[in-house]
Specification:
The chain is of the alpha/beta class and 272 residues long. The protein folds into two domains: 2-143, 3-Layer(aba) Sandwich (Rossmann fold), CATH 3.40.50.2300; 149-271, Arc Repressor Mutant, subunit A (Orthogonal Bundle), CATH 1.10.10. The protein is built from twelve helices and seven strands. Helix 7 (158-169) crosses helix 8, helix 7 crosses helix 12 and helix 8 (176-190) crosses helix 10.
Length: 272
């Protein structure tokens, strides 16, 4: 805390952004710069630049893409861990589906949190505040399962919230994909590891419940998402998905859709 006169003011969280996608990097810059509780210490477009900025500015937190030129996120994380004489910053890794092996390696190396692309900036902001709420105290890694997060919810009914969000997105309740998506979100909230095994575990589990084939579950979910994009309320879609993707040209994959909604509900269960 910084004290000015009789008023105590919270220390700004010093942040470095490392992301080779310049459009996404600009979005992150704009978001961080507009928040009075954050201080943007530097921006890097590859791993080497990120490492130089980390050494120069000693940030409180680093938002870093897992896959970058020159040095990837794992190599930067390895160098951060090797420095024993200075304080280690919190690290949020941005990752995409298909990088499960790298994600597992990063988890072993002690990354503080993963955020799956595409993501909601509101969720990112809450993650930053959670990780840096007391910069002088070492916080445990934010890699707990969804069930442990849901257990500390303050009166939030996840089942109701899932249904509400589905209606807001404009997914018709009568299509099969509606129930498949609803169940998939609830299952991911209970077991986040299912995101790394969507086709091998998540779809088969839903298929077994409804006595159908995993391929039909996949098609049903894809059809429901397509309906949301064709008939849904554009402002609602932009609010949920528009920060990290151009929703007018691109709709999320099944996995991205489930992951983003599950993460939003996970946050609600924690702070609601």
């Amino acid at each position: 805390m910084i004290k000015r006169g009789n008023v105590e003011m919270s220390k700004k969280v010093k942040i470095i952004v490392a992301e080779d996608n310049r459009n996404l990097c600009q979005i992150l810059q704009d978001y961080i710069s507009k928040d009075d509780s954050f201080e943007l210490a530097g921006v890097a477009y590859n791993g080497l630049e990120a490492w130089d900025l980390i050494q120069k500015h000693d940030p409180d937190l680093v938002i870093m893409d897992l896959v970058m030129p020159n040095l990837d996120g794992l190599e930067v994380l390895e160098r951060i861990n090797a420095r024993t004489s200075v304080r280690k910053p919190k690290v949020i890794l941005l990752t995409a589906f298909g990088h499960e092996t790298l994600t597992h390696q990063a988890m072993v190396m002690g990354v503080d949190y993963f955020i799956l692309k595409p993501f909601d900036l509101e969720i990112l902001g809450k993650r930053i505040r959670t990780l840096t709420q007391d910069l002088e105290v070492t916080n445990p890694p934010m890699l707990q399962t969804c069930s442990s997060v849901a257990s500390v919810g303050r009166g939030v009914n996840i089942n109701v919230e899932v249904t509400t969000m589905m209606h807001q997105l404009g997914i018709p309740a009568h299509v099969k994909g509606y129930q498949y998506i609803r169940d998939a979100i609830l299952m991911v909230i209970e077991d986040v590891s299912l995101l790394g095994a969507v086709t091998k575990e998540l779809y088969p589990a839903i298929a077994k419940k409804y006595n159908t084939a995993p391929s039909r579950v996949e098609r049903g979910i894809r059809h429901a998402i397509e309906l949301a994009w064709e008939r849904g309320h554009m402002e609602t879609l932009k609010r949920i998905f528009g920060y990290s993707m151009n929703i007018e040209r691109q709709k999320p994959t099944n996995s991205e859709f489930i992951a983003l909604l599950a993460d939003k509900l996970r946050v609600m269960s924690k702070v609601g």
